[in-house]
Protein 1
Amino acid sequence: MATKIRLQRNGRKGYAFYSIVIADARAPRDGRFTEKIGTYNPNTNPATVDLNFERALHWVLVGAQPTDTVRNILSREGVYMKKHLLGGVAKGAFDEAQAEAKFNAWKENKQSGLAALKAKEEEAKKAEAKARLEAEKKVNEEIAKKVAEKKAAETAAKAEAEAAANAEAAPAEEAATEAPAEA
């Protein structure tokens, strides 16, 4: 029996997530499987992988062939690194304690790299938000300046109109007050 480690599609249209399964190569993609060893959700950023590491390692060691995508997932999770180190132990290159130490060092290095990447993304997001806020403040200041200029122009126009009305009304009042005095 040719055994494959592959993805089994779940989810709705346009929002797929996958189960990582061990299945006979002849079985349909979403059909019968031997064992479910994890899940893979590509819809999150970064993609979420929940994997039973020990079972995945067991199946890789007994010869199950992963598909390309699953091989990449297993490699990122460290299954192939662990297999490589166990091969070195079997050949006598080093003992299990050294292999475990190398694997833990690799895992720590990977975790620190991911943390640094996440921090860099967060910093970029904050910088972008700050730049957007500064641009918005600048636009608001320009709008406020235009509104103030417009109000000042309206106020000046009203003052001129009142002054003109007062100037026209003053000679008419003088004429009105002088006319009764002459009579």
Note: Strands lie at 3-12, 15-24, 35-41, 48-51, 65-66.
Protein 2
Amino acid sequence: MPVFALTGAAPVLGAAEGVLKRFEERMTTRVMAYSGERQRDLMSGQIRFAAATADLAAARLLLEETVRDVATGRTLDMTDRARARLVAAHVAATARRVVNELCSAAGASAQFTSSPFQRAQRDVNTISGHVVFDPDAAYALYGRIGLGLDPGPVVLV
């Protein structure tokens, strides 16, 4: 389960990083309707770009660190397994949030079927909807195991 969860989170993160790159490119040329201002000159766009950059960089570091830990070949105890699930869910949730925020900030035309934004958004939302990426369940699972409680009869660890 840890390997499944972590390898499933990787493409979600990669798609989010791709959306961030496209958002950066779009900001340099996009002119806002009605005001005529370039989006790159607006503080709101600058903040969204910077926050997304920081959030995705942190998610990548967390994912890579956890993959290294799991790949050592040692036997994983329940805490290690729950942590991997926690990280996978957290990374997927972060990527999903960032993608949805950037797609919203990219404007309504980003939702045209010809736009790569809408395709990435749909893919990220679909993949991160898998039960293994449910943040509430993953956070509760890690909390229970980390605090010495029984995880329950049916858990994905």
Note: The mean pLDDT is 92.
Protein 3
Amino acid sequence: MIKFQNKKYELLFSNNLAPLQALNYADELFFKEFKKILGKSYRIISIIEQGWQKKYGLVSDLELLKKKFKLKINDYKWGSVTLKKYEIQSKKLKNLLSVINNKEYFDKNNNELIKDLIRIRNEAALLDAMSNLLYLFSSLVGNEFYSILKKYTKDKSILNDNFVYYTQPIKESRFAKIKIKKLTNLLKLNKRDLNFSSIIRIGAFIKDDVSDLLDLRSKMANNLYLEISKRIKCSKESINYLQIKEIEQLLKSKNNHIRLITERKKITVLFYLDNKLNIYEGDKARKFLNIGGLSEVREKANLRGQIACQGIVKGRAVLAHNSQEANKKMRKGDILIAVYTAVEYLSAMKKAVAIVTETGGITSHAAIIAREFNIPCIIGVKDVMKTINDGNLIEVDANKGVIKILK
């Protein structure tokens, strides 16, 4: 947790992305769509240094979001309506990308390039908002679902099978797989609990499918991005450091943008407050953080988190700040500890006897993979990366959601 402008912000997630790619061109459209779905938006401070993003949400906003999400558990249409909207919108985006993929842009004027860039953004904003919203649902209230299942059975084997069944994605996607199609010891949940499960399962599918769509966007809009990069004289990768309105200005004015991109590569701060997203880079970003009094909030270490897959194991702790570090350091029988995981971590995860992450909900990548391979896993363990050291002998009790340092 951090303190900024005398307010507490909680770490939502951390990942390795270019600054403006991190918030899909960092505009207000994303937050507008989020508010339309839930009736409430939230404020963030996102700090991206050397390509590594840490996104924090204002604690008071997150508490209000929790209340909103709990009301949604009693709304028996919300999950299915959200899924239907998602499927319609993702189809529209894919159709648009197919058209753009077949276009040659070398003979098109600047206005048409910008028009297509904006069209992609407009079609994608709702999908991005849905993914983010359902990720937050999983992180903020999803931990209650495991406790709910405990009301139905005390048998750990039945509990674990049902937990996997009732939290797996509702549909197959690129990485999120349906592990259990039928279950002989299936628990019969009441209407509310069944709806809770449905929202979690829809979220698991949408979150992973949006990740796939991000890759598809990049691939199918390749001709468009290449032509823009040629005209403004920068690499295609560097476009991720510019807003759409900035690209539009550069196409018209031919101003020098090298310094701006260079500064953003060093450090970028995205600050969303009062319905406006502010962007600071380089020295301006450091000054902004300094004036805001950015500081870490030291709290008593509590190595407890959300159960993602049951089991109790002991092993050597391996701290990994990125996928390269994880794949290099992990040996079979080790316990992987990371801020988060993604597909790049997969080979390291397969060697692990347990997985612990600092962020994420029960539909996070770490949770889904752990359940797929039946690896004990605890997620959302605050400050675990600072509390445990590399090489510590630890016990991961994923039946209780507790980690103990043994040596």
Note: Residues 2-138+209-296 form one domain.
